[in-house]
C-alpha cells in the first residue's frame, strides 16, 4: 500500500520558544505524491513545524531527514536549495517592489551584469499565466488587495523546482475559482511526485485534497490518519479533545429599530449605488465573491474609505463621511478583514490591544491614572468569550499564532457595548472549536439587542448565521434574501 518513498521526515522534532514548547517531539513523514494535511487548533504548532521544515526557524532538538539523510537548514534560501519551498501564513512580500520584482527576488536574471528587466517581467508573466492569476506584473505590491498578495505569495513558492511544497492556509482570502485553480496545480505537482504539506482549518478543503492528515494538539502529534476513511467530526474531536455538537447556533430573530440606513452610497473604492438597512436584533449577512466590493461598502460607512455619493444614517443621525473616531463614538464597532495592517498593534500585548479602545474612556481614572484592575477584568472576560487562553494575554500579539491574533481582534470589540457590530471575515484562520465560540458571541450580541453585520466570503457562514442577506456583485447590491429564501443556490444565482 505505502510503496511511495518518504521524501522528508522529522524525528522527535521540538521547538522551544521563551515560555512555550511550541513543538514537542514530533515524528512526521511526507511521501512522494501525497498531500499531507496538518490539522490542529490555533496555536497547536502547525506553523512552527513548517517554519522548521522550511528553514525559517531552527529546531531546539530532534532531526529532519531528506531521503533518509539528516539535513540542517541555515535559512529559507538554504531549504530551497534542498528542494523545499514554502508559502507562509504571514506574507513575505516587499511592498515597494513590483509584482515581477517580488517574484524574481533572490535570483534575478541579468545581462552583462545588469538586471534584465524584460526577462524578469516575461518570467513573471509566464508564472502568473500558468496559474491563471489575474495580476499586473508592473504593479507595486503595496497596491494589491490581500487576495492578490496571497496569489503572489503562492506564485513565489511555486516557481522554483521544488520536490517539497508547503502551504500554510493558502486559500484564506482566495475566491472559489482561484482555489480550484490552486487545487488543480497541486494535483499536477502530485502527479510529478512532489510531496505537499498543507495547512487548513476548512473541512471541505481537507476532504477534497488530503491523502493523509496529521493532527497536532499543544505541540504534540496526536495521530496520523488516512484522509479517505476519517470523518469530519472525528477529525474535530481529535483536534480539540472533545466533540462539538453544532458549529452554528440558532439565533433568535427579533428585529427592532433600524440602526443603520444607507441610501445610494458610492465610494472611489468601487462601491456603487448601494442601499441597505440594518435593524437591532438581527444578523445581516453581506455575501459576494472576493473583490466584489463588500468590504469597501462598510469601510466607507465606517470612515476608512471616502464616500463620494449617497447617505449614511446611523442611530437616526446623518453621518455620511464621518471619521472612524466619530463612528466608534456613535456606537459602531468594526472588525477589519486585514488584522495585520489595520487591527492590531503588533508590539503590544494581547491585553493592551484589547483594552486600547478603552483608554480614552472607561479606563481613565482621575489625575491621569489608568484603572488597571478594571482593564484587566475586562480583557480577561473578553478573552474568555473568544476562547483565547489566558496565558496568551500578556504575550506580544506578534508572537501569537495566526488564529489567536484573530481572537484578540474579536475580543477588542467585546469590552464595550456598541449598537452595531460589523465583522469583516470574522473567522478567517480560526479553528473549528473557536469558530463555534465566535458564532455564539455573535448570537449573544444579537439576542441582547445589538445589530450585527457579517461580511464574509465563507458561504456556509453567511447562510447559517444571517436573518437577511445582501448579495454584492461588482460594487453593487445585486439582491436581498430573507428567512427561508436564503439558500445556497439563490445566493450563487445572485453572485453571477
Ligand atoms: N516567534 C515566536 N516566539 C514565541 N512564541 C511563538 C513564536 N511563534 C509561535 N509561538 C508560539 O508557539 C505556539 C504555536 O504557534 P503556531 O504559530 O505554530 O500555531 P498554529 O498551529 O500555526 O496556529 P494557527 O492555526 O492559529 O495558525 C503558540 O503558542 C505561539 O504563540
Ligand atoms: Mg499558523
Brief sketch in words of this structure:
It is built from 17 helices and 22 strands. The protein is an alpha/beta fold and 496 residues long.
CATH superfamily of the largest domain: P-loop containing nucleotide triphosphate hydrolases
* Biggest pleated-sheet summary: 6 strands, mixed
Structural class: alpha/beta
Indicate how many domains the architecture comprises: 2
Strand content: 25-35%
Helix tally equals: 17
List unreliable stretches of 5+ residues: none
**What is CATH's topology name of the largest domain?**
Rossmann fold
Q: Alpha-carbon distance between the termini?
A: 44 Å
State the helical fraction.
Answer: 25-40%
Using only C-alpha atoms, the radius of gyration works out to 23 Å
Tell how many strands the DSSP assignment holds: 22
CATH architecture of the largest domain: 3-Layer(aba) Sandwich
Question: CATH class of the largest domain, please?
Answer: Alpha Beta
Biggest sheet: strand arrangement: 6-9-10-3-11-12
- The averaged pLDDT comes out at 88
Identify the overall geometry: globular
Brief descriptors of the model:
single chain; 496 residues; alpha/beta; Rossmann fold; 2 domains; 17 helices; globular; binds adenosine-5'-triphosphate; binds magnesium ion
Amino acid at each position: 500500500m505505502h510503496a511511495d518513498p518518504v521524501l522528508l521526515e522529522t524525528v522527535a522534532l521540538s521547538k522551544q520558544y521563551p515560555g512555550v514548547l511550541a513543538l514537542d517531539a514530533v515524528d512526521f513523514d511526507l511521501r512522494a505524491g501525497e498531500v499531507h494535511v496538518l490539522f490542529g487548533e490555533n496555536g497547536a504548532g502547525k506553523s512552527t513545524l513548517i517554519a522548521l521544515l522550511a528553514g525559517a526557524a531552527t529546531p531546539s532538538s530532534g532531526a529532519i531527514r531528506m531521503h533518509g539523510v539528516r539535513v540542517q537548514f541555515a535559512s529559507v534560501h538554504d531549504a530551497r536549495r534542498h528542494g523545499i519551498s514554502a508559502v507562509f501564513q504571514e506574507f513575505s512580500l516587499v511592498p515597494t517592489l513590483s509584482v515581477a520584482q517580488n517574484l524574481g527576488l533572490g535570483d534575478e536574471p541579468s545581462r552583462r551584469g545588469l538586471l534584465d528587466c524584460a526577462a524578469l517581467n516575461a518570467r513573471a508573466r509566464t508564472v502568473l499565466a500558468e496559474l491563471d492569476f489575474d495580476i499586473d506584473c508592473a504593479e507595486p505590491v503595496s497596491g494589491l488587495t490581500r487576495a492578490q498578495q496571497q496569489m503572489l505569495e503562492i506564485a513565489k513558492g511555486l516557481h522554483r523546482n521544488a520536490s517539497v511544497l508547503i502551504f500554510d492556509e493558502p486559500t484564506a482570502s482566495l475566491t472559489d475559482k482561484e482555489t480550484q485553480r490552486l487545487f488543480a496545480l497541486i494535483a499536477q505537482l502530485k502527479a510529478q511526485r512532489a510531496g505537499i504539506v498543507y495547512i487548513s482549518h476548512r473541512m471541505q478543503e481537507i476532504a477534497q485534497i488530503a491523502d493523509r492528515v496529521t493532527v497536532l494538539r499543544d505541540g504534540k502529534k496526536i495521530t496520523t490518519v488516512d484522509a479517505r476513511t476519517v470523518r469530519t467530526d472525528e477529525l474535530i474531536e481529535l483536534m480539540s479533545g472533545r466533540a462539538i455538537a453544532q458549529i452554528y447556533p440558532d439565533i433568535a430573530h427579533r428585529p427592532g429599530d433600524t440602526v443603520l440606513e444607507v441610501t445610494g452610497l458610492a465610494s472611489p473604492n468601487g462601491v456603487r449605488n448601494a442601499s441597505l438597512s440594518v435593524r437591532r436584533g438581527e444578523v445581516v449577512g453581506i455575501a459576494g465573491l472576493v473583490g466584489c466590493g463588500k468590504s469597501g461598502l462598510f469601510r466607507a460607512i465606517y470612515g476608512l474609505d471616502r464616500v463620494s455619493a449617497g447617505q449614511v444614517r446611523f442611530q437616526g443621525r446623518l453621518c455620511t463621511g464621518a471619521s472612524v473616531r466619530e463612528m466608534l463614538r456613535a456606537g459602531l464597532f468594526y472588525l477589519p478583514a486585514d488584522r495585520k495592517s489595520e487591527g492590531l498593534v503588533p508590539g503590544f500585548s494581547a491585553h493592551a490591544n484589547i483594552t486600547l479602545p478603552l483608554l480614552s474612556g472607561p479606563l481613565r481614572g482621575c489625575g491621569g491614572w489608568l484603572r488597571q484592575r478594571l482593564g484587566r477584568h475586562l480583557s480577561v472576560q473578553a478573552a474568555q468569550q473568544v476562547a483565547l487562553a489566558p496565558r496568551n494575554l500578556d504575550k506580544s500579539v506578534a508572537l501569537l499564532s495566526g488564529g489567536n491574533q484573530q481572537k484578540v481582534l474579536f475580543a477588542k470589540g467585546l469590552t464595550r457595548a456598541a449598537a452595531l457590530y460589523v465583522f469583516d471575515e470574522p473567522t478567517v484562520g480560526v479553528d473549528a472549536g473557536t469558530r463555534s465560540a465566535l458564532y455564539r458571541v455573535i448570537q449573544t450580541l444579537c439576542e441582547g439587542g445589538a445589530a450585527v453585520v457579517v461580511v464574509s466570503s465563507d458561504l456556509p457562514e453567511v447562510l447559517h448565521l444571517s436573518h437577511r442577506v445582501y448579495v454584492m456583485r461588482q460594487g453593487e447590491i445585486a439582491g436581498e434574501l430573507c428567512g427561508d429564501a436564503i439558500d445556497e443556490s439563490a445566493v450563487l444565482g445572485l453572485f453571477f
